[in-house]
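[User] I have long wanted to understand how a fold can be written as tokens. Those tokens are not coordinates but codes from a learned vocabulary of shapes. Could you go through the record with me and say what the backbone is doing? Thank you; the sequence and its tokens follow:
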Amino acid sequence: MPIGSDSSAEIGSNSDTEDDSVIDPIVEATEVFKEIIAPISTEQFFGTYWERKPLLVKRNSPSHYDDWFSTADFDSMLRNHRVMFGEHLDVTSYRDGKRETHNPEGRALASQTWQFYQSGCSLRLLCPQVFHDRVYQKLSILHELFGSFVGANVYLTPPGTQGFAPHWDDIEAFVMQLEGRKHWRVYAPRSPNERLPRESSGNFGPKDRLGQPVIDAVLEPGDLLYMPRGFIHQGRCLDGWHSLHITVSTYQKFAWTDLLAEAISGALERATTQDEEFRRGLPLGLLGFAGSAFGSLTAASRDDWANRRREAEEFCRSLLARLSGHISLDEAADRIACGQVRDALPPALDPSEASCSAFGAGPVWDARRGRLTAAPPAVTLKSRIRLVRRSAARLTGDGRLHSSLGNTRVFREAEPAYLDVEPALAPGVAALAAAYPTFLTVAELPIADPEDRVALAAGLHDRGLLLVREQR
């Protein structure tokens, strides 16, 4: 087998760009997102609102999000799945300016959970995709649009109550009202330093000055509230109405600073290896004149210390200038992408995709005849192939093909997985990544030996990474 070792391996459930029999995941993801933000276009959303300002969409269409989740689904989940307090479900309250969590230990059985609800506590389901197929399918495909992990929380709040203190989040939040009504107030960041924060805030209290809300509205079923990172918000149920909403989130720790951190780390490794200046020892006595205790030194206090500090700072800047020549955008992007592959939900395949993947193809047991059905045709040079998902596979410069196929619906439950790809075959994997979501024929893979092209395609298909269709 021309593909090398497999570090681990389970999935949840002529070129051709117009194969109507198999969905285009990017188109599918875009359609799911269009449904979320309609009637706002994707161009208007990303050009006007994304990371800039909140968006309120009032639809007067109660059934718009009916296929996402319901309180009946919540009840069924409690009764039929091992939902654990703290791990999957939080019980919260916000009364008299005080936010509290009331999680007991153990499993969240329906009887105890509903007692909390009846006493005025909010219920936050931290990972509905673990238990709910439709949520899982939608979040999985949305990863194809954003390129970043897409998660969700579900919030069920009793009438006339509030479960959380005012706060900001470190994610882009899409609040979709599913049932009932909730009164939301959204406040702009109080300073430029609070825009697009890296971490979620603590709880704000009654004495904190939040300013006038930029959005003050009641969400009804089918309505949407989008909030960029850093916008302070709070929601309270109206008297006589419960509230159920799902918050879809993305872009956590997915900023230029994250890419630069990876780029600088790699550049420093290369610079240290290739440039002697980076390996020179520190000046004698540096720690005696550099540090926070010495930051106020001036020429009037110690001429020699001040001069040596200045020389050290100038040399640091010169090394940083040289470091920029070692920056590799591709390497940094690979590191970020591998993190995303590790965090991703396993691909939720459409039936049209599953039928030509290792998870749906192959012989099937015929119970009536007591035997297997005929095996599908073998992979040939004429077979048309495509990566199962862009977000499910990433080839890096060391020849490793990182994969999310072994992931579970539980965040980071599985160990990272990869295949070792032989150097002669790596261009074939790269061609598939570049062509995605277009199908290529096996013959089009830029690998010298035709037998190796077939072997690569067959090997990747057997591991669930490729869709294979016969040439029409």
